[in-house]
Amino acid sequence: MVEAVGDVDLLTAAGLLDVLQRELDQGVRVLVLDLDGVRFLAACGITTLLETDRAAQRSGADFRLVGGCRLVRRPLELLGITAGMPLHRDVASALAEPVRTRRRKPQPAAGSPSRWSGTWRPSPWC
C-alpha cells in the first residue's frame, strides 16, 4: 500500500510514479494507493494514476484507489476514470475486494509501428 500526502502535481507526480512502479516490480498482486492525504491532483497526477493502472495490468496486478477529498475525487469521476478504477472508502475495503484475474496484455514487438487504438495517451509534458 502507498499513501500519498499533499499535492500530486508537476513537481511530485514523477516521484509518486516511481514509488508505485517499485511496488509493482516487487510482484504485488494488489496495489492500493491511499489518496486521503492528497489536497490537489493535477493533470500530471491523473496521468500517473493511468500509467500505474496500465503497468499493473501488464504485470497482472490490481490497482485500487482509496478515498480522496472532493477536489481529488470529482475530476476522476468527471473524466470517467473511476469506472475502471473505483474509489474505495477506506484501505480495508480496498484490500477486502477479491483479486480480479487479469491476463497480461501482449507487448508489441520491438520496432512495430504505433497505432491509434482509441485510448487516451498521456501527455509527454507530465
From TrEMBL:
Coiled coil regions in record: none
Q: Which GO terms describe its molecular function?
A: anti-sigma factor antagonist activity
Name the Gene3D superfamilies for this protein: STAS domain
The annotated region (Disordered) lies at: 97-126
- What's one Pfam family here? STAS
Tell me which domain of life the UniProt entry assigns to the organism this sequence originates from. Bacteria
Domain STAS, by residue range, is 1-98
Query: What's the protein called, per UniProt?
Result: Anti-anti-sigma factor
**Species name:** Pseudonocardia kunmingensis
